[in-house]
Amino acid sequence: MARVFNFSAGPAVLPEAVLVQAAQEMLDYGGTGTSVMEMSHRSKTFIDIHARAESDLRELLAIPKNYKVLFMHGGAAGQFGIIPMNLLGGLNANEARADYVNTGQWSKKAISEAKKFCKVNVAASSEDQNFTYAPVQSTWKLDPNAAYVHYTSNETIGGVEFNWIPETGAVPLVVDASSHILSRPLDVSRFGLIYAGAQKNIGPAGMAIVIVRDDLLGNAMPITPEVFNYKVQAEADSMINTPSTYSIYMAGLVFQWLKKQGGVAAMEKVNIAKAKLIYDYLDQSEFYQSPVNREDRSRMNVPFRLRSEALDGAFLKESKAAGLIELKGHRSVGGMRASIYNAMPVEGVQALVAFMRDFEKRQG
Ligand SMILES: Cc1ncc(COP(=O)(O)O)c(C=O)c1O
Fold this sequence. Notes:
Helix content is 34%, strand content 16%.
């Protein structure tokens, strides 16, 4: 059976070489006679898999020594509540406040979860223009007494990406980097905490990776469950309970693959080229339209509309028949969305643009 080009926003395409290796190792990992899925998380074999995944991630993102890397349960949305629980513990309920920047559906969800734990100051928002841009820093109204500042550096649904890192002085900066982590180099030292759900650029869904600065550990609210307590998990190498062993293994294979591609700087070049192919085509076309402010367009998630909504059904049906799947935009935005993560080969984007050109010619 032929593989298709999968433009899903997540769970998303994984590198084919990684899937092939996982398939080869499924029944017998490294001569152990068992699958990684069947292996004790306390076994030396798995501890080595885990340690290598962490050290490869550290190398890929040049993570400084004073940051912990945690592999956690509950996806990125789990972190929406886990973050306030861990960062606000030293404060009483009336004092606890945090700044949030509202740039789309994922920021909104993070905000509504945070409101269960603290007072939220929405420091900036792009809701006035239907979340089609990243508010420039000069418009942010930060609270100097906030425990942290949270933003979403790539809005997966709206296709808005920050190509700059906000400046928050002594207040720790927290970022949801779920949908573009590892797609470009990142100066980790600018952040207090970086988190990402795995199912876009890392591996299987359900796991979140958290990169947290040491000084932010140990401030958890007493109600924080042990499995969601950063300090407890850091001290236990993310194994206070049984971790998502197979997800960690798959993430490790993706990290090895990324290193073979030349790391995140090399990946960024490819991602720029892929994004340029599709945006250049959109910009010269009168049939398709990109709703996002040019400077803030995501390299990973490309929403676009057809000249008429009435053509959406035909576009989706025909693109699927051509082996290009999951192009339907999120219901809150409408139209189409092509997610072109690290694992989407340039041939996939070329095939998409060729299909779009052909569709335009036939309908336009
Ligand atoms: C930016 C962003 N944050 C959070 C999430 C939620 O992730 P999860 O479903 O792993 O909880 C997503 C999911 O697509 C996302 O794109």
